[in-house]
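Consortium newsletter contribution from the modelling node. Members have asked for a concrete example of what our holo predictions look like. Here is one, prepared for the nicotinamide-adenine-dinucleotide complex that several groups have been discussing at recent meetings.
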Amino acid sequence: MTYKVVLCGCGAMAKGWLRAVQSTPDLKAALTVVGLVDLNESVAQSLAAEFGLADIVIGTDLNAVLEETKADIVFDVVIPAARHSVVTSALSRGCHVLSEKPMASSMEEAADLVRAANAAGRIHSVVQNRRFIAGVRRMRRFVESGAIGDITAIHCDFFIGPHFGGFREKMDNVLLLDMAIHTFDAARYVSDKQPLSVYCLETNPPGSWYAHGAAANAVFRFSDDVVFTYRGSWCAEGERTSWESAWRIVGTRGMLTWDGDETFKAAVAGPEEGLLRGFEPVEIPQPLRAEETHGHASVIADFLAAIRTGQRPETTGEDNIRSLAMVFGAIESARNGRVVDLAA
Ligand SMILES: NC(=O)c1ccc[n+]([C@@H]2O[C@H](COP(=O)([O-])OP(=O)(O)OC[C@H]3O[C@@H](n4cnc5c(N)ncnc54)[C@H](O)[C@@H]3O)[C@@H](O)[C@H]2O)c1
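And here is the predicted structure:
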């Protein structure tokens, strides 16, 4: 069966979605783009031209385009502020929805979207593409194997200076809301623990070209006494980390580091006596399933499989709201200077 798709929000990221669909034979066969929606119709027109989408409906109003196309699926690639209205409109018209991250602009809106998807009996899932990559899958598999014992801590560093322009340079809490969500979600996935509380210091460092919150330092308590720390800045020029962050995972028997790129290192304690025990390198197997390592294409495939089988997608709103709670907990902590409980 093929599904009719309307893509809403035809800006920069929409190209990544269409590229993922067009370059993945299974997705290309299963999905037909029947409509494009953007507040700026010329943006939608150029996207259609760029991707050779002829004979489709193009408009500025999602409801009207859904009415005309009778689409089964909405790809929601709008800016975060517009997400709630786009998702609720699509669900109320019986569509399954796959949204870009972040899932919502507030916890209230996110909870409302979970309710709306359940009430409509449709799937609402979130593109948390940076957990569908080889490095993150590899870390999860390694942690699960117990090779470094039980994990006790995860530490992530993220320092990059991108000059995006656009909505990011105007929004509040830009790093936490627009980027840190990826690392928070990946840490939750890799550890397979529940976030319980957070303390966060958020700043907009001197020299920042963002309006608010370009840097954040957060300490999370996860279940089973696991600590997750995040140090990040989006206005850090020069010697930078990977977009995936630089990772250190500490276990009871050893540690794993990943530079967020190609370099993984893991070792457990060696046999030496004395102050330090030396170390013995440990092999880090490749991810178990290669099909889960293609970013957007893998998330879209997971979403489609869920529609076909009736099973929950991995990043369904009901799950993703827990990563969003880490973000909003960190924002609240930064505001009031106190530890925020996430378990409630
Ligand atoms: N997963 C990732 O790696 C990743 C990377 C970049 C961006 N994103 C996310 O993708 C989303 C879009 O980001 P972008 O960089 O493409 O932004 P963008 O500003 O380039 O594009 C957003 C588009 O949405 C349109 N739009 C806004 N409100 C609308 C509405 N109500 N109806 C229809 N169209 C509407 C705008 O006109 C604009 O063309 C954001 O949520 C962002 O966080 C995700």
